[in-house]
Fold these 4 entries.
Entry 1:
Amino acid sequence: MTASKRKSVPMVGTSLGGGVGGAGCSSLAPDPESAAEKAIAFLETLRIPEGPKAGQKLRLADFQKRFVRGALAPENMVAVLSIGRGNSKTATSSAIALGSVMGIWDKQPKREVLFAARNRDQAKIAFNFLVGFIESLPKRERERFVIRRGSRLEVEYTGNGGGLARCIAADGRSILGGAPTLAILDERAAWEKEKGDALENAILSGLGKRNGKALIISTSAPDDANTFSRWLDEPPPGTYVQEHRPPFGLPADDAESLLVANPGAAEGIGASLEWLQAQARRAIARGGSALSSFRNLNRNERVSAEDRSVLITVDEWLAAEVSPEELPERKGPCILGVDLGGSRSMSAAAFYWPETGRLEALGTFPSTPSLADRGASDGVGRRYVEMAERKELFTLGDNTVPPGPWLAEVVKLVEGASIACIVGDRFRHAEFVEAMAKANLRVPFIWRGFGWKDGAEDIERFRRALFDGQVKTLPSLLLRSAFSEAVTLVDPAGNHKLAKARSLGRIDAAAATVLAVAEGARRLARPVQSGRAVLWA
């Protein structure tokens, strides 16, 4: 599997291999005098410091060479690498740091290299790799290093103009005034939001003083809003991006996609494909957080590894998605679940046919601001635009979605279906009544609360219907996105109520789906009344 190539300005699309190449990956013969080729030649003189192949010469795989070339291309200041755990991203970056501090391709005096991480222990991992590589150098070179392991983790190089490598944690104030020639931001997706962004901004602001470069490396973040995800999805000019992420929705033990996320497995780097598949099957059997964690860390997917309070996990929802040929028909009464949005939020509707289990959902935003601008402000990139292209989302109204015309437009999409009732939030009852009158809808309205009482029952009925295979829908980016943002708050008695995972999350489609499916489950559970006449004694 190889990564596709793209320039250092943002472009849409990745290859099947999940990688996105950048400048410096040319089909022409590489220049042996370039910084990248000098770095590759130097790295392959080092010896592996630990693991089963400890003591052997370091041999870079193709994906590692691509990253080195992209990172050290003159036009790039930042290089971003997203790859599965155990594919030597930290070790490779540490080897690059060693070459940088020794001035192999950078002759500036007093070079400065930073190892930045969420905390000191994380930064120490890269530091230990650096020290291990130093120990593989000839004795004459080793004597030029001073290694400090006390309160400060530092490596000082006294030859070739001198250099210093040091570790820092996520506190931007600790490096104000620094001028690094190279910075390694390790496991960037795991950094705390505010402190991590402050540290990153402080580092990047100092790089320009000495034409420095930054290597931002990590496994995938759990969501699109993470700063590391933004680097991958919206890279600014001067950024090289290499992402090894398989397509969404594949089985956890799929061999081809495992190799996409773990290209080192085919090169003898890290875990073997057999081991990865065995771990995948174990995670599938255990389910829950074990499976979510495997997808995030080993398959490099954007899946939250924390599922103690999620409404449902990714794999639980994927079980409800079917192909168009397998989708049940619209048969029997239809339950319409509605979540009316506020002045600027999404309004969502979910249609559920309890007799067949068919589910359809769509969302609506006001036209101002545009879907692209709204996606940028919500931290989800082009997701809303893609939903609109898939006919799962549309716009109506200027600054707000008018409830009456919206409800009428929604019902048109299932024209001919027998709508048995509309289910919605009891606190919006007056708005629902007005909207139904304007849409000329004369069906019962069932109001439900989103608090502990009604919410706990609806969530439990929805989960039970989903797990029993009574919910079937086409693959929907709208619903995937909504359920990925939905969590539940749990009270001391174990009751659940729906909530957002983040303040900018959009869970309206998930809320509408829970309401519709729960009401459908209640109707199916009611005993069928007998038509037998009453007999009097």
Entry 2:
Amino acid sequence: MRHSLVIVGAGPRGTGLIERIAANAPELYGGPGLDIHLVDPHPPGAGRVWRAAQSPLLWMNSHAEDVTMFTDDTVDMAGPVREGPTLHEWAGIDGRTFADRQLQGGYLRWVHERAVAALPPSVTVHHHPCRALRVGGPRAGRQQVWLEDHPRPLPADLVVLALGHLDAEPDHEQRALTAYADEHGLVHLPPDFTADSDLSALRPGEPVLVRGFGLAFVDLMVLLTEGRGGRYEGDTYVPSGREPVLHVGSRRGVPYHAKIGYDWSGERPPLPRFLGSAETAELLARPQGFDFPRDVWPLVEKELGFAHYHRLFAAHPERTAIAWTDFEEKYAAAGDAAERETLVASAVPDPGDRLDLAALDRPLDGVRYGSSEEFQEGLRAYVEADLSRRHDSRHSPDLAVFLGLLSVYGQLVRLGDTGSWWHGFFSHLASGPPGPRLRQLLALSRAGVLNFVGADMAVRAEDGVFRASSPTVPGCTVEARALVEARLPGPTVRRARDPLLRALHQEGVAETPDGLLRVDRVDGRILDRNGEPHPRRFALGPHTDGRTPGAFTRPRTGGPAFRQNDATARAALVFLRDLGCSAVG
């Protein structure tokens, strides 16, 4: 009898899993034929986020040379390396290009087709362009995957959830704001995928409060300006007259740091140094568990500092006061942050060359402006300085910190859920917009199409309108009849709109305090509330506590998603192989 593997989600994560199945099958699977069923209403490879049917104005958030779906020898995995082209090599474009998402979708479709073609002849892939509704079946037996508009379920020896980013039901605050908007004839757009949002209710010339300053905001900015006929002439924005006026703020009150615009040269910092597999293993072995602020963050700080100063001493020794060997020895021996700060103060004369993670994370903390006009000028100066710094190789320790962040993330995914703060911090420093997008933001600000509200933006629904304020500009309030939550829905199981995840929640799977699906750290098997892994169900992606920065990654940076894909693929193949052996026996 042929075996059956059902993969729910045919986007880049599902494609990456198929690629790893193809790579590992010659070693691990010699059983009977295998049917792989891909269940996804969107096209295989591209999935929802990278599908062709979206605005060509929307870009990727990485240089084309920094995007790959293929493994290399930096990935810590048991399976074989199968190298392949980066996006820029495949597309034949300049590696420094920020490609549009439609082009990335084409790359992902090609990777999917290549992965399917690499499968053994006994393996057949079937795509079901619909949604999976629920999974049933005994732990020790075959599973059934029920599909919408299908009278009978798919039989499955194994099921892998690779669902990617999902819609979620609004939380209490969002429901209250929507109800208020309905009652008073206002517009409230809750967290959503901006490319899928209906923005038609945001009328030309009218003020719109925007809460969120990350990548969802950048998409919103593009669709409401160029997407409505505006254009840029150099550093000047020429409005079409169809734009609303955006008043944007967030917890930090500033946009994410710009993507770094220069290449690495010379020796890379030897990472990991203070937060590697030995340290994560020790944290996981603690009977009482670990606390992120107390036990993990000090290691993160030390690792990022090491990356920063290694580069500073190697590339800019004239800006240091002692030899690197002396600094490295003392830095390694320093017992806490205070000791490191004392060492750095004596070894790095210019405070501008010292790493200050708190200032990078919250640059407006304690900063006050006397008027909104002063703040507009002040924040434009901040963005201009950030753009200048991120495109100036004299500040190359910033790129070393970026590499340190990738190394740290690769270790932290081994720990499971480390809370939402870390993911926000990582995104702010390492996953910001392309430089040209921030230059557009500056042009929109100068044109009066976009205004800054400040940090710790508070929104009140009162007197039939929405009002926003920030301690950054005391006493200043912005009033509007429209509010947009410019951020993705939270990846929670309990509030997911996806019917399959809701059914799993009701069934009693293990969840983190943030509502993520708990999975086995080794191979991604779904855990029940007793901590027992389900032998036939796996999950990968942002709705799990093994979430990674993305389903694809920068070449030669270890690719934690690739490592997870390989482990899950190998576990699945071994299970199916042994299942075939027991059936024969």
Entry 3:
Amino acid sequence: MSRSSRAASKRPWQDIAKEAQDHRDSTINQLSPPLPPVHSNLPSNITGIPRILLDSGTISITQLPPEELLQSLLSGRLSAVEVTTAYLRRSGLAQKLVNCITELLPDRALSRAKELDEYFQTHGKPIGPLHGLPISVKEHIGISGLRYTTGYVSFWGKIAQEDAHILQVLSRAGAIFHCRTTIPQTMMHLETDSNLYGITVNPYNSAVTSGGSSGGEGALIALRGSCLGIGSDVGGSIRSPAANCGVYGLKPTAFRIPTDGWGYMMAGADCVDSVLGPLSTSIEGLKIFVKTIIDAKPWLSEPALTPMPWRDIDVGGENGGRKLKIGVMWHDNVVLPHPPITRALQTVTSKLKENGVEVVDWEPYLHDEAWAIISSLYFTDGGASDSESINSSGEPWRPLSTWIMKENSCVKELSIGELNYWLEERESYRKEYAKVWNSTGSGFDENGDLIDVVDAILCPVGPGVAPKHNTAKYWFYTSQWNLLDYPAVSFPVMRVDKEVDVKPKRFKPMSGLDEENWNLYDPETFHGLPISLQLVCRRFEDEKVLGILEYMTELTGLPFESFDS
């Protein structure tokens, strides 16, 4: 911990939290003209409020998907200042509605936008492929001269000395960073709540969570305060908020996207690879983000990265003219998903079959053992470092911090021998799962390539839609793919309908965890919430998983209901 961090931790934690929130509010108050006032008695669903309170120009700009917005910026139809101003205003309003940002960056963003506009006027061309595109940034990703706390009060004095590598790459491509988004205490929640900033709520219903740990990003993008943002994922932290908030989110394969310069407790020594990745209002936004970064060859300055160029994937050509083959995982043999999730799986599966896609059932392989492995590797010091970071400031433990570290029987301080054991278990499980995937094919051709193997797995993102606050305790549907290091993308499908997604009168749970999960199902509360699913491919098939989702979307008309805020 830095000297400034130790000094900050001696102050009452409440004083630091107030300073954090006052600073955030002051950055929003810099907007001119001021934002319209927001009524204190808000409805539970606030997704329609921005259209009421903001001017038509701001709405028209911020409703554009990133690919269309970029075309307007790259052609000069819209200026960087116009676009940045619109997103600053909409993200500032989003904060007042759902508590999703830690600070607005109006001075930096507008100064950068003016530079870009001047360059365009002088040279008659954009500075790069992301010229003028506003991108929101999860708070623990370092921005030079700004704090990054990783959700701890004791880290309030921690200042980034330079921009994180990913921001350097995106900035050279012309991106503008207009705001920073909320994260939870410890960063290890599928909820976004901290003592610094409080709880980030779901735009569709304030009684449920926006997800975590990138929940600020999920909520902000759902409200169109950003069309493209940066999250991180070690157990579901991109896919959970994307799914809960009805947007798109990609967990890439580890070591394809730069991570130098972020705040993460076990950075450099973690046994489960955490990744940075995008959340967006469109599939194309995810693709633009990843391709731009990989095309910049970031491995030349961050040697840990895999030197793998971007590959354009033609789903038809990739499959040699044969049918696309999708494996559907209806459940993980531990917890049965709630009715809305099963209905979404059935609907997508039916649409795929109608359009000539081969669909087979996917038999999950020991997903409960996968959780035992990954949760044993999350806190190899028994949670000592995280506990010290919480306790040193005197801040209280948030409920899900207590659950993941103090109530999780797998969290133990590991000896060298025990650590080696769990690392060997991780590698053995990865080999076993590869065998399971290979077995879905019909053999090998003369070149040794698998024939007729499953191309991707369609599965739940979680055991239900966005859960009520402090109840997101089942990670298996996302952490599974972190353990295997498979790329996975979450995408919106439809909405909960309480008249259709009824709770069955008779239910026989598969496990104690299943019974706990079914006790959480409340169709009345969940009515109208986004239902999302997840598509998974094998390691380093990031381009393929996006290509298949894009193909599925064109084929079936996904999503089947509007998610336009």
Entry 4:
Amino acid sequence: MKKNILEIKNLTKYFGQNKVLHEVNLSIERGKIHGLVGANGSGKSTIMNILFGNSVISETGGYEGEILLDGEPIRIRSTRDAMKYGFGMIHQEFILIPDMTVAENIKLTRENTKKGASRILGHELSYIDKAQDQEDASSVLNELGFSIDCSYLVKNLSTNAKQFVEIARELDKKNLKFLLLDEPTAVLNDEDSRRLMDVLKKLASKGTSILFCSHRLHEICELCDTVTVIRDGNIISEYQKENMSIPALATDMIGYDIHEAVQKPRMIKEESILSFRDFSVQMPGEQLHGIHLDVKKGEILGLTSLSGHGKLAPGYGVLGIYPSSGSILFEGENLDLSDTGKTIEKGIFLLPDDRKNMGLLLDHSIRENIVFSGFYGKHRFSKKLFGPFSVRDKKSMSRYVEEQIRELGIKCENMNQKTRELSGGNQQKVCIARAAAVRPKVLFISEPTRGVDIGAKEKILDALIRMSREQGTTIIVASSELEELKRISDRIAVLCEGKVSRILPPDASEEEFAYAYTGEEERYDQ
């Protein structure tokens, strides 16, 4: 049996005239976990898409080069081809059907059927055994250490829960030989990430080969047997387990040293701009149960919790995306949560964690995305025509967009490029620029650095600090990344089981945060 299960030789890919992969050579050993790291736009997702037969590859001219599986040349033209060869993939952006249940998504195309009906009608025409499907789905989710009602519709789940469903769908495949993972832990906190990594180690020990793509370099160093660094479509370096280090990987990825964005300690006024009173949100997988919380004017408030304990819910509740109860005071007055438009007009804005489905107009240009909310919601970038009439001020629009592209380092061809064509990190920068254009009084932002590389992460965090310092924006950041919250926040509210467990300063000890995550603050105080 050959040592390498997969060999890639001189893999080349063009998108139009743009060459995104340059004669890439890569070998992956059987039953090993191979890491693939690179900045957003480096080409790593393109490699994944080629191996899994994503339609975007065939629709743009296919690929050049050779792929060998078990020493035999194969040609992957479609996802059907990839699955036939035993490939499974967990995508950075979910490939789930929103109006189907958790069980239906996990068992799709592999449904159980009623045995009696199968014997009479054949498998194709038989009745689906929904009870068995739910049992199978629950079983594979339990292997991941994640419990959820498998009759829930996927569209009603939190992003964190959707990621577990996506992972469970692939692990349920019986012929899985090679698993591709594109940023699978980006939406997970450290506890859930560790749970997933334990599952991956077990899979590898049983012979499944894994290509693991992540921006979390500490996970790469802990999990992977080998790691390959790609930059601008070229293989830069390869490290074995014993030689891996975060500084070396970061430098190879970006090509320069990283400057970390850090919020300097400051005095915050006691004046509250936003006050939650017995506030609850019915967000599946992230429910909030009667919190009391005062947000101070001008502060950066971090919100964190273990997955499923409610950190994402406040922003979605305030903007009316999920049903809520209780009351909110904004600048001393009761906020009417029944009219999202008026909430935005008053100066409250949300950047959701699901940027592709909720945060961007993917088929519109970078320019249109950045100015959209500012123009339509706040009447920025307009000039008087005559009387009450006004028109778009295209010059001021272009000036602002060019400034944001430069300051945030948005990697693009030009401002007229479709947002869909950008990498995940650059799409997130577009979201940040759009929020800044609104000049909100209060900005809720969920998982701002999910799925972005280390360089983009620092640009995004630095932009949030600037918004707070220069515009006076009150920012509420919901994140699984505690270390990032500690670097930019004035205070951090820790939630447990949908309630505020503790509010801690960013320099609080790891022990204090650990007790707060689990709701054991009373034990800590003893």
